[in-house]
Design goal:
Blueprint lengths: L3 E10 L2 E10 H21 L4 E6 L4 E6 L3 E7 L2 H14 L10 E5 L6 E6 L6 E6 L8 H6 L8 H6 L2 H9 L1
Antiparallel strand pairs: 1-2, 3-4, 3-8, 4-5, 6-7, 7-8
Helix pairs in contact: 1-2
C-alpha cells in the first residue's frame, strides 16, 4: 500500500515551477516532478506570448506555431522524453496510452494546456502536441479584416450568436 506523506506538489505557472506543501501520494509527487522536468523546455516555449502550439514529431524535430508566423522548426526533442511525458500524464489521469491505446487527448496537469499524444502503431515512434489556451481573443471584425471571414460568409456570421461563432472558430 502506498504511503501518503507531507510533500511538495509541483505546478506550472507562467514559465516557472512552483511548489506547494500538501499531503499527497509520494509516487504521484515523483511522477509529476518527472513530467515537469521532462517537459520544462516545451512548457517554457508554450508560455511565450505568441506561441499557440508546440509539436514534437516522431523524428524528434521540435516545431513551434507562432501567431502570425506559422510553424517553424526550432530544434530537437528526444522521442523517449516525449513518450515519458505522455505516459506520465496518462497514468496520472487514469488513462491508457500504449500499443493498445496509441492516442491520448487530455489536459496537461497543472496548467491545462491541451495535450495530444500519438504512438506506434499509428506513427513510427511518438508524437506530442501541446496547445496553449488562447492568449488573445478576436472579434468578428478582426476576422473580416484579416480575410478569414469573407463578405459571402459575413452575413451568415452576423446572424449567429457570439457563442455559436466562437464554437465554430475555436472548434
Amino acid at each position: 500500500m502506498l504511503n501518503s506523506i507531507m510533500a511538495e506538489s509541483v505546478t506550472w505557472n507562467k514559465g516557472s515551477i512552483s511548489a506547494k506543501s500538501q499531503t499527497i501520494d509520494t509516487q504521484s509527487s515523483r511522477r509529476l516532478r518527472d513530467i515537469y522536468f521532462n517537459a520544462e523546455q516545451l512548457l517554457n516555449i508554450l508560455n511565450q506570448p505568441l506561441v499557440e502550439d508546440v509539436v514534437v514529431n516522431p523524428d524528434e524535430t521540435l516545431w513551434v506555431y507562432r501567431t502570425g508566423s506559422g510553424f517553424a522548426q526550432e530544434g530537437e526533442f528526444a522521442s523517449a522524453r516525449a513518450d515519458s511525458i505522455l505516459r506520465g500524464i496518462a497514468f496520472e489521469q487514469g488513462l491508457d496510452f500504449g500499443v493498445n491505446a496509441p492516442l491520448l487527448e487530455t489536459d496537461f496537469p497543472g496548467n491545462g494546456a491541451r495535450v495530444t499524444g500519438i504512438k506506434t502503431p499509428l506513427v513510427r515512434g511518438t508524437a506530442l502536441a501541446l496547445r496553449a489556451h488562447p492568449k488573445t481573443y478576436h472579434s468578428m471584425d478582426d476576422y473580416t479584416e484579416q480575410g478569414i471571414i469573407t463578405e459571402i460568409s459575413d452575413p451568415l456570421n452576423k446572424r449567429m450568436s457570439r457563442k455559436q461563432f466562437h464554437d465554430i472558430v475555436d472548434g
